[in-house]
């Protein structure tokens, strides 16, 4: 069994192989120890020859060193001269020691192993502390050969050697922490300026994400760095500016084509140039953002799917990292248009991920200890996600609407029972108004799916939400919500005779007084029509490179034909939400114990239990 010792290979970049090597070494040394007791002659021969080479005839590796040879140093120490002996120990603990130096000394130690008695215990412990696993394969092989010789010739060191090997059974977490502490500032400092070319940014972000494969402990920090830079690009490329740039380019291209048609036929050149025109964003900042978002989306897909198969554990770890970055950076950022689609895309892989994300947003919304601005942002994300994510099952939509409506009614009751006059004040009741708008927005998009399967049950469900009490309360949410949402919600609820909102809307309109720009006259403008400062984070994805993947999971609007007038009185002839194409998805057994990271506060009901109840009632 002693021959097993020569076939151990250790990779410094793979801890599992290191631990396996160390474990095999323990078994092998135990065998060598027994062999030394039973057959000392054979053990002595193995000391002198290993790896198929004669040690005595192997030339030493040339390197720079101080002091004499190991044999001379041990002889001087034996006669009382310890100067070279101390110098040798000092050189062995040098953190900048080279591989060639280690190999040279180990070969000399092997030739003098019979002299390394108990008197040299301190020197042996210094050798055992050498960082051999992080070295080249030649150092690893030489070190293992030295250890084999040592425990064969000096059995007194067997326990010390075994302790050293067993210490490598677990990873060295301190090195990971120090790596993060020193590496992250360097990566942040060298991140290219956001105005650099798309290619420069793409290469840097791609290599940052590759680092997470080799150093998983800093993945969250790297994602935070990358997403922080993406948010800077995102807020500098507003939806309006992107649409204007695309429209202007289309107009310019049409004008150029008309001019060229008057001169000569350019069909071949136009068709050859068409792919680059359609895939490159007209807005320069949006082009850089599009490039980086495509890299990040591809990374998410590669992490979650291994050889085409979904990997649950890796996906959950990535979800937790992205959710932490979401809470720290994305949620507090107002009016970002595209970066949040990283979580949207990840949640599309499994319904359980979408439910965990909704549950996380719900806990933020109903937690009174959090700032109102974060609670309002969470309500905006909740409503937009429910309305736009086609992959969310109807049972989950109903469960979330039940939670929201229950919380809204409790809030109304608490305000009515306080005995004070309640006024319409966004600064005091911001989370309430944003929650009402989330419910209205979700019903606008999802009412067809809620009603088309079973009209009677669907109407009963909408009536059970008691929306009439919400719109008629003293807090008057219809006055605060966006006019477009208010009008669309009023049209839909009147069509199905669920709530009648027009009386309240007309009264609110009379309370909105026009404001003149100057005393000299001029155009009149009404007061702020967006007091909630609302934005809908999952409005259509405008970037081009990855939109082909998101289009299957996103619920879009479609326009009726010009001749359709049946819903004109209900404000529906312009736009109406498209019926869901994926309504058969139901919660599966992806992971029944999978929950989002804990947060303060607890909802009056659990989202999972409500989903189960709604599935039973409406299936």
TrEMBL record:
One of its GO terms (biological process) is transcription initiation at RNA polymerase I promoter. InterPro entries: ARM-type_fold, RNA_pol_I_trans_ini_fac_RRN3. One of its GO terms (cellular component) is nucleus. Pfam families: RRN3. GO terms for molecular function: RNA polymerase I core binding; RNA polymerase I general transcription initiation factor activity. Belongs to the RRN3 family. This is RRN3 homolog, RNA polymerase I transcription factor. It comes from Astatotilapia calliptera (Eastern happy). The lineage of its organism: Eukaryota, Metazoa, Chordata, Craniata, Vertebrata. The gene is RRN3.
């Amino acid at each position: 069994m002693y021959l097993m010792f020569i076939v151990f290979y250790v990779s410094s970049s793979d801890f599992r192989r290191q631990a396996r090597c160390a474990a095999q070494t323990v078994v092998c040394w135990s065998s060598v120890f027994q062999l030394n007791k039973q057959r000392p002659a054979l053990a002595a021969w193995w000391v002198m020859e290993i790896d198929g080479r004669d040690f005595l005839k192997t030339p030493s590796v040339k390197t720079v060193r101080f002091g004499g040879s190991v044999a001379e140093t041990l002889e001087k120490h034996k006669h009382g001269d310890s100067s070279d002996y101390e110098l040798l120990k000092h050189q062995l603990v040098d953190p900048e020691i080279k591989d060639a130096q280690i190999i040279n000394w180990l070969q000399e130690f092997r030739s003098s192993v019979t002299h390394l008695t108990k008197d040299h215990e301190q020197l042996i412990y210094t050798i055992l502390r050498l960082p051999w696993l992080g070295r080249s394969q030649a150092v690893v092989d030489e070190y293992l050969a030295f250890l084999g010789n040592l425990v064969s010739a000096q059995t007194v060191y067997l326990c010390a050697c075994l302790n050293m090997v067993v210490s490598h059974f677990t990873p060295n977490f301190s090195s990971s922490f120090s790596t993060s502490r020193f590496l992250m500032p360097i990566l942040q400092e060298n991140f290219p300026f956001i105005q650099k070319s798309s290619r420069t940014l793409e290469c840097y972000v791609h290599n940052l994400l590759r680092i997470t494969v080799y150093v998983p402990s800093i993945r969250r920090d790297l994602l935070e760095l990358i997403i922080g830079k993406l948010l800077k690009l995102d807020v500098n490329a507003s939806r309006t500016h992107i649409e204007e740039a695309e429209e202007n380019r289309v107009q310019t291209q049409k004008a150029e084509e008309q001019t060229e048609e008057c001169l000569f036929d350019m069909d071949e050149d136009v068709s050859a140039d068409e792919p680059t025109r359609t895939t490159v964003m007209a807005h320069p900042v949006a082009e850089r953002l599009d490039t980086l978002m495509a890299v990040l989306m591809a990374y998410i897909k590669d992490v979650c799917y291994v050889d085409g198969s979904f990997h649950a554990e890796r996906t959950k770890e990535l979800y937790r990292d992205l959710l932490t970055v979401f809470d720290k950076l994305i949620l507090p950022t107002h009016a970002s248009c595209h970066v949040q689609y990283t979580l949207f895309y990840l949640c599309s892989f499994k319904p359980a991920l979408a439910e965990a994300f909704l549950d996380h947003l719900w806990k933020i919304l109903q937690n009174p200890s959090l700032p109102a601005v974060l609670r309002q942002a969470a309500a905006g994300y909740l409503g937009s996600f429910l309305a736009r994510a086609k992959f969310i099952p109807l049972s989950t939509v109903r469960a979330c609407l039940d939670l929201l409506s229950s919380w809204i009614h409790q809030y109304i009751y608490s305000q009515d029972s306080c005995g004070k006059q309640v006024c319409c004040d966004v600064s005091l009741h911001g989370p309430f108004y944003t929650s009402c708008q989330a419910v209205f927005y979700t019903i606008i998009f999802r009412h067809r799916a809620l009603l088309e399967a079973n009209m009677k049950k669907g109407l009963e469900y909408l009536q059970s939400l008691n929306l009439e009490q919400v719109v008629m309360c003293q807090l008057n949410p219809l006055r605060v919500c966006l006019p477009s949402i208010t009008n669309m919600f009023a049209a839909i609820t009147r069509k199905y005779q669920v709530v009648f909102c027009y009386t309240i809307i007309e009264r609110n309109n009379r309370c909105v007084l026009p404001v003149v720009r100057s005393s000299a006259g001029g155009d009149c403008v009404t007061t702020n029509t967006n007091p909630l400062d609302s934005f809908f984070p999952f409005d259509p994805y405008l970037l081009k490179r990855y939109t082909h993947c998101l289009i299957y999971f996103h619920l879009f609007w479609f326009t009726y034909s010009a001749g359709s007038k049946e819903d004109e009185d209900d404000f529906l002839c312009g736009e109406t939400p498209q019926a869901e194409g994926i309504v058969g998805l139901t919660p599966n057994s992806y992971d029944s114990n999978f929950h989002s990271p804990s947060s303060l506060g607890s909802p009056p009901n659990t989202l999972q239990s409500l989903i189960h109840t709604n599935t039973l009632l409406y299936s």
